[in-house]
């Protein structure tokens, strides 16, 4: 939201509302304990792909490496992009047009299948 010049007071209000909605839907205990570094440990060795964008100013790319430390077996792809959402141009209606993203997903699935055989 900061990247789109949304005023700070609106960003702060949106965060407050989002947390309240999550608390209402999932309980305060669950929301307060939902930390990515703990959640990724729930994979317990199952295939994990961590995808981030190098220019994301919402979630720093450094967070990717923190998650990788918690699941060293995870596959990591850092996309050279500014977007927060990893699909090119945030075009979720036509994801198939993002061949770089689709190729990564296909390759990851292929590696998982090969490991299982």
Kindly describe this structure.
The chain has 117 residues and is mostly helical. The protein has two domains: 1-34; 40-116, no CATH class. Helix content is 48%, strand content 9%. It has helices at 8-26, 28-33, 36-39, 62-70, 99-116; strands spanning 49-53, 75-79. The chain has a two-stranded parallel sheet. α4 links the parallel β1 and β2 (75-79).
- The radius of gyration computed from the alpha-carbon positions, rounded to a whole number of angstroms, is 17 Å
Instruction: Report strand order across the widest sheet.
Output: 1-2
Distance between the termini: 44 Å
Number of individual domains: 2
Could you give the count of β-strands?
Answer: 2
Overall shape: it is: globular
| Residue runs with pLDDT of under 50 for 5 or more positions | none
Structural class: mainly alpha
How much helicity do the residues have?
A: 40-55%
Strand content: 5-15%
SSE series: HHHEHEH
Let me know the average pLDDT: 81
The biggest sheet, with number of strands, parallel, antiparallel or mixed sense and barrel status, is: 2 strands, parallel
Number of helices: 5
């Amino acid at each position: 939201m900061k990247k789109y010049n949304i005023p700070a007071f609106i960003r702060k209000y949106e965060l407050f509302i989002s947390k309240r909605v999550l608390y209402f839907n999932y309980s305060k205990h669950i929301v307060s304990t939902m930390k990515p570094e703990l959640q990724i440990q729930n994979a317990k060795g199952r295939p994990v792909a961590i995808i981030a964008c190098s220019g994301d100013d919402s979630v720093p790319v450094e967070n990717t490496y923190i998650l990788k430390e918690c699941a060293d077996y995870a596959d990591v792809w850092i996309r050279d992009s500014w977007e927060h959402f990893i699909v090119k141009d945030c075009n979720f209606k036509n994801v198939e047009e993002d061949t770089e993203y689709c190729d990564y997903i296909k390759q990851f699935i292929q590696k998982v299948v090969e490991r299982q055989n």
